Amino acid sequence: MNGGSLGIRSGSYSSLDKKQQQNDVLLPIQTPSTTKTKPYSKMFKDKEKLFHWACKFAGRKRVRMFLLLAISAAVFVWVFYVGKDEDQENHNGHKVNDSLPLNSSETPPMNEVQTVGIVNRVYFPIDVERTEVRVMPPPPPSYFLGYTLPPGHPCNSFTLPPPPADKKRTGPRPCPVCYIPMEDAIALMPKVPSFSPVVKDLTYVYEENLNKETEFGGSDFGGYPTLKQRDDSYDIRESMNPHCGFVKGRKPGHGTGFDIDDNDLLHMEQCRGVVVASAIFGAFDVIQQPKNISEYSKRTICFYMFADEETEADLKANGGLDETRKIGVWRIVVVRNLPYTDGRRNGKIPKLLTHRLFPNARFSLWIDGKLELVVDPYQILERFLWRTNATFAISRHYKRFDVFDEAEANKAAGKYDNASIDFQVDFYKKEGLTPYSEAKLPIKSDVPEGCVIIREHVPITNLFSCLWFNEVDRFTSRDQISFSTVRDKIAAKTGWMVNMFLDCERRNFVVQQYHKEVLAYLAQMAPPVINPPPPPTSSRSFVR
């Protein structure tokens, strides 16, 4: 490390030698002349006479004492001046430590000292010593830039073991995931937001009087954007104003469709950290209580379950819903004036537009109503967002990677009418959609398993969620079909990527339960309970 990098002026000899070597020129060495010494000798004689004169009148001891005091005063003044400069540098200089401690929730030290061996050159005798040099660092970053776990941490060398050889079970199954302890995950929660490429300012379309002049698709809830407006929404700019649901109101949940009580909206606005959201419409599922959740998470994380009036009635009758509006950790938010007749499409509103319902939240974890959460949300966020420096994470489908295959599977299973699926896929094909292949790497799949979404609420992820919802609103409600089109259009303009992790990793932290109708069917199909016959009334026994 040279003097220039430390803010220290380098010695004149080293810099001169470098210039000579670079130019291949030997400069003449100037030696002090030995002639014309009379002025110096005369000055020396005058000082010697003055010294003898002072010694004659003041005495030698007093002169020595005077010189000693003068030297002491000079040393004191120098020490005071240097100490003052160091204190000022210590006050102004801040060094950011990007290596965060894993076993402490405290803020990492902001002031650090770099020790460098230098020689203090002064004009009076002093011993050579090693001196602390404070380096003026750059200002702290305004964005979260990620981190790496310490060397030797088990998660750094963790690899998935081979799947168990069980011929009787060939379907999807969970696999191990390397989480860090919950306390460490909380300590690593970013203090600042992640970087949002290109887009910085995001507002949303509000139309008091809807303009329904569009080519096809749209709704009163999401608006009726034209194909030109759709194309414009993929022209990513620093400031954007896309359609994003709730177009008939200035505030989501107020006269927009998907209406929510003011008291619930107030609580939702106060959620400023992490939110876990889910929904049950049509009394379709049974509420699953999360497991393995720390008390700290129960106090600091917002758990919200959205439900329609039918589900509310069912919960009051069978689920224990009372005036507290809570069942376990979940706060039940009843939604009225649902904009769609299809319950699955209504479920896409809290799933994809979480950032609009929770405008002050920093992170969100969406899980479908049929899923049971079995890992602490802070550990999930650390593993799939913070550690990978991602802002959006979703699992891949365990079996299918190609949109064309996904569309055929949806038609075969009767998930949506075939004509609408074919129309959507043909539209994307004309825009350039191709079957998935290894040529798309590092993209590992075009088909997500969309029952879990992990995201940070920054402008780029909010825009992605809006545009994904717009595709669901315009075409079919099968969001797996439209996912890759939206992702790839945004990535082409910004370089933004989605963390698509393995489906077996998703199955590690959520457990899928049966829908309510399936549970009722299984209960009916269960064999009847056969009670043992009553004991004989006679005391006589028979032996055969």
TrEMBL record:
InterPro entries: TOD1_MUCI70 (IPR006852), TOD1_MUCI70_glycTrfase_dom (IPR048354). Keywords: Membrane, Transmembrane, Transmembrane helix. Residues 100-109 have a biased composition (Polar residues). It holds the Pfam family TOD1_MUCI70. The chain crosses the membrane at residues 66-83. The keyword Acetylation does not apply. Residues 90-109 are annotated as: Disordered. Residues 202-515 form the TOD1/MUCI70 glycosyltransferase-like domain. PANTHER family: ALKALINE CERAMIDASE-RELATED (PTHR12956), HEXOSYLTRANSFERASE MUCI70-RELATED (PTHR12956:SF38). This is Probable hexosyltransferase MUCI70. The lineage of its organism: Eukaryota, Viridiplantae, Streptophyta, Embryophyta, Tracheophyta. The gene is LOC121230895.
